């Protein structure tokens, strides 16, 4: 199966890979000539490893199946290690499930195409959802350890990667069910950690219907909330700091199928004082018929400016489910503009494209996954966007 382009401005498709028929791609990350893809779980595949030394011809090297009743849909690569989450799947089972795997797998990458597992950190409970790790001592993640109602924030110490240990945790009061805590949030709302991106000693944490939570992590063993910001939307997902501009770019994940699902947006928050974040505004919604289409329409992931990748505090790259990939210019944060987009053809067996995650590598290539069946896409900026990307580094 080879898929093409349905709509585009400033970006062109240069390669596609169907991941050997397991096209339910989730997180994607490139490190050198190796590309790692986590799978959402519906295909029962866990992790795919591709050789992308020739980006125009990605070659599948290996695939690992996920453990029973588990998905391993997130990958993080740095410092010669690959980290992979283990979480119960499906999230909301309709029948009793058997045993599942819950925690964090650590792999050595002496051979980047043949990772060797060297450790597993057991979280208990439902397991680990999302990981943030760029090397160094601590991996930050969201997890549902035993005794908790929903996802909390956890730091794991990788000073000795073969013996990971928990370093600290933070939860919203009311989440610790085993401790007798009762929810203090409105009925029908969900307070759950997604993941935190860290700038200095400050972690910016998306916390679902609580929106933004700001943590002081100067003492990893005793993180504390120092600020928050509410704007009334739900399912707050990624909080990307732009430290040189005192801004956060925040996605509220669309979790409902359309047509005309509840609106979700990408927001700007002023964090000149992290203890007093203030709401700044929204990025433009994509033009087009997307709200009238089936499946999800709305934001999901951002390119997170990781070390070694393309990094900019001006250009923002986002996935928007059935509206594909969107690129925004924040030269004037009071007047953000969409400057490029790309939408795939609808993959066979689904009703609309579902652009899920993306990674912009140091060469400016954009690696994109489809959530359902579409697999992996490789995009290249057209000359005008390439020039803007170089200017905005």
From TrEMBL:
It comes from the Bacteria. SUPFAM superfamilies: 3-carboxy-cis,cis-mucoante lactonizing enzyme (SSF75011). This is LVIVD repeat-containing protein. It comes from Planotetraspora phitsanulokensis. The lineage of its organism: Bacteria, Bacillati, Actinomycetota, Actinomycetes, Streptosporangiales.
